[in-house]
Amino acid sequence: MSAFYLTFVATLLAGFGARDQLTVAGLSLRQGRRPAVLVVAMVITVATAAAAAYLATIMLAQLPPPARTLFAALALGIAGLESLVLVPRNSPREPTNSLGALMLVLLARQAMDAARFLVFGMGVGMAGPWAAGAAGALAGFVLMLFAWRRPELLSSPVVPQVRRLAGALLLVATVAMFLQEFALV
């Protein structure tokens, strides 16, 4: 169960203020809280978390146990760097009302983001890809629900600083994992 809990916390940290969350928040601010937007966001979140978990099952069979831990640390590090360096831009000024377009945008944004890479990396590193996938989906639910329900909070100028702080915490966890793996702590 540690794969579930650690992935859940790491995904919440990496996903806060991310592009997909800001997209849902921007639409909710402009169009009101349409339930269909939340449903589309949840479906895409489950699909991308399941895809990351499936890829983790494939990678898990190919890596020996010591390399798995380093792979998980690498995933945390990449997620932390993305949170520190990449600050999402504002949502588009004239978003479309099309749920299909929203689906494509969210799929593109989530397919290569830090949160899904964390699900993949933690699933491999903790040898629990489906637990990590479930945790990633649940964390994604929480993040999307927050963006849909309270979009005005994500338009605050404090959000980029919180995102950077989360990135720093992920980098600290990365260093701790590397030190522990090489028995330096």
From TrEMBL:
Per the record's keyword annotation, is Membrane included, yes or no? yes
Q: Which residues cross the membrane?
A: 35-57, 69-87, 99-118, 130-149, 161-179
Q: Which UniProt keywords apply?
A: Membrane, Transmembrane, Transmembrane helix
The question of whether Transmembrane is a record keyword is answered with: yes
Task: List the protein's name.
Answer: GDT1 family protein
Q: Which organism is it from?
A: Novosphingobium panipatense
